[in-house]
Amino acid sequence: AIQLVNVLVTGTGPGGFFVQDAMAAMPDNTGLFIYYPGPANRTDVLIGDRVTIPNGGVQNFNGQIQISSVATGSVSVVTRGNMLPAPVIVTPDEVRTGGSRATALEGVFVRIENVTVANIAPTPDMSDTAPTNEFTIQQLPATAELLVNDYLSLTTPFPTAGESLGFIQGILELRNGNSKLEPRGSFDMQRTVQLMSLGPAGQFTREGMAAPGPTIPSPLKLRINSAQPIDTVVTLSSDPGLTVAPTVTVLAGQVEADVLVQGVTQTATATISATLDGGAFVMTAVRVVGNAEVPQLLSCSPNPLVLPEEGTAELTLTTDIPVAASTPVTLDGGSFASVGTAVSVAANARTASFTVLASPSAMGNGELEATMGASTLICPITISNAPVTNHVVISEVATAGPGGAADEFVELYNPTMAPVDMSGWRLQYKSATGATYQNKVTMPAGATIPPRGYYLITSGGTAYTGTVTADLQATGDLALQATAAHVRIGTNQVGTSPTDTTVIDTVGYGTGSTNPEGGAIAPSPPGGGGTIERKANANSSQASMATGGADALLGNGLDSDNNGNDWVQRAARDPQNRMSPTEP
Question: Quick one: pLDDT at residue 86?
């Protein structure tokens, strides 16, 4: 067993985080990756934290030496906001795959200066598929190239071949047999300055402000594409109804700056524009709330709220405009549901979230009435004894269709109450008796699946003939064996082993498949364009899941970790995508 005490976090991702011994006299052999899965935008461990890892084991993961088997919740933060060590200045030749310093600096914060983007479509490595979202850099006139990966951050906008970078820095990592640089965000490279955004959208200010201030409920920020060596001055202008300063400055080394606004008169839409050197511009709209306007309850989410029998779930109320002062909300679920605490919308906010408890013996459809002042909102509630699954699942698989053997799709379902960021996740395939999995699709940055919603992955080109549009197309055919094989999804850490622990969901279908969940196979898709589909609950059947059946619109949330129990055949395919209605 390994224990690490008071080590410094230098980079974080959904699969874990990098640490470095910042006190060492020399940087060699001071960096390490800690496998510790968490959300994509994690807050439990941050860059600059000093943490203690009480117990873990050393693992060789496709060549990368890492600490794994760290119990969830066991990592403790000692202090936050600590200064990082200065990056080690290196050349691409020194840290490329097989380079003289690649092994010693694995897991270490490094920097390469004055580089050129060489290749924006490098050959995928042993467990990746095109497009890889990777590129290579050179330090001309030298020809050695270093791979730049997207595990910690996808470079946006994506570089162009021949683009010059003043510097690029990040964590050096050995991933899938190749030495790669892992930038942590736009602050880790210096590009020719461009305006990226002015947002977030949907912000407010108030009429008659005495001085400029931040927008509400979130401060308006101007963002550029990368940190610059000198201050970047951007020109601002606005419609009548509010005023802004003539310019805003993004300081050297930063990528964003606050934009302060001063509300003058009530205005439904006042546009603010930001212009760089009289050319490219970005804009956003801000609403100036009048002093006489009274906030109203606008919506509840999720809608409907689905509660397990005698269980709980979180509900969020949203107002049309921010409240000026903390405002109480009265909630009445009758004999159907209750809320244990007082609920208020905070000053200058638009939302209030709280936990709803299903009443004992309550079942079926009901409602919660929310009242704020003179405004009333009815929030539908469904209480169900359907299984509670807390992760994205594979919900339907088509291994052929009306268009032939390549008319394939894999549908995913999110049974949870919150959207799930699937950036970098992988869809993998293994034959019935194959020893390893192969990647079929890598989810792009920003790929999300809505709560109780779907995400559709199809064969590329014109092979897929469905009328429901794909959320993501493969670069070619999915090439799923028609009667017996395995399909699974996993994070961007997932390897090729059938026993990989980062797998999120697997279906092994058809006689002879060797690695189904629970040791029991799902049925083979029927002929004639049929599919296999995950059940909504333990009592679901082929008839109840068919179009018009009792469970047809209740989602696909059953996951008993036994493919034999969880899947049925469908005679007619029913692909659904992000825009399809949520279920239940």
Answer: 94
Contact between residue 259 and residue 220 where contact means Cβ atoms under 8 Å apart:
yes
Take residue 536 and report the two structure tokens written for it.
């909504």
Q: Are the beta carbons of 133 and 444 closer than 8 angstroms? A: yes
Tell me if 522 sits within 8 A of 535, measured CB to CB: no
DSSP 142-182: ----EEE--SS---SSPP-TT-EEEEEEEEEEEETTEEEEE
What is the 8-class DSSP label of residue 188?
G
- CB count within 10 Å of CB 23 equals 10
User: Which token pair is 375?
Assistant: 């405004």
* 306 CB-near residues (< 8 Å, 6+ apart): 313, 381, 382, 383, 384, 417, 452, 584
The residue whose two tokens read 């905070």 is: 346
How many other C-beta atoms can be found within 10 angstroms of the C-beta atom of residue 126?
13
Q: How many angstroms separate the CA atoms of 517 and 509, rounded?
A: 10
For residue 146, how many other CB atoms are within 10 A of its CB? 29
| Distance (Å, whole) CA 236 – CA 245 | 7
Q: What is the pLDDT of residue 130?
A: 67
Nearest to 9 by CA among 38, 99, 25: 38
Task: Indicate the residue type of 343.
Answer: V
Burial class for 437, CB neighbours closer than 10 Å (0-12, 13-18, 19+): buried
Instruction: Please say whether the beta carbons of 6 and 76 come within 8 A.
Output: no
Q: Are 184 and 47 in contact (CB under 8 A)?
A: yes
Which residues are registered as beta bridge partners of 429?
438, 487
Enter the pTM of the model: 0.64
> CA-CA distances (angstroms) from residue 383 to 111, 335, 357, 528, 578?
54, 12, 10, 37, 24
In sequence order, the 6+-apart residues with CB closer than 8 A to the CB of 287 are: 203, 204, 205, 267, 268, 269, 270, 321
Please state, in angstroms and rounded to a whole number, the distance separating the CA atoms of residues 211 and 261: 8
Cα–Cα distances in angstroms (integers) from residue 321 to residues 223, 318, 338, 377, in the given order:
25, 9, 26, 15
Are residues 134 and 180 in contact, defined by beta-carbon separation less than 8 angstroms?
A: yes
Q: Which helix (H) or strand (E) holds 354?
A: strand 351-358
Strands 327-332 and 343-345: antiparallel
The answer to whether the beta carbons of residues 551 and 417 sit under 8 Å apart is no
Q: Measure Cα distances from 43 to 17, 355, 464, 583 in Å.
A: 12, 21, 40, 30
pLDDT block averages, 10 residues each, the chain of length 584: 93 90 91 85 92 91 84 92 95 97 96 96 72 91 94 88 94 91 93 93 96 97 92 96 96 94 97 91 96 96 82 90 96 90 93 92 91 96 77 97 93 92 92 93 87 94 91 90 96 88 94 93 90 89 91 91 94 95 88
328, 349 contact by CB (below 8 A)? no
For residue 518, the model assigns a pLDDT of 92
Which DSSP symbol is given to 581? P
Is the Cβ–Cβ distance between 376 and 297 less than 8 Å? Answer: yes
Beta bridge partners of 14: none
Length of the chain: 584
Backbone dihedral region for residue 461 (phi beyond 0: left; psi -120 to 50: alpha; all else: beta): left
Question: Rounded to whole angstroms, how far apart are CA atoms 248 and 260?
Answer: 9
Q: Which amino acid is at 13?
A: G
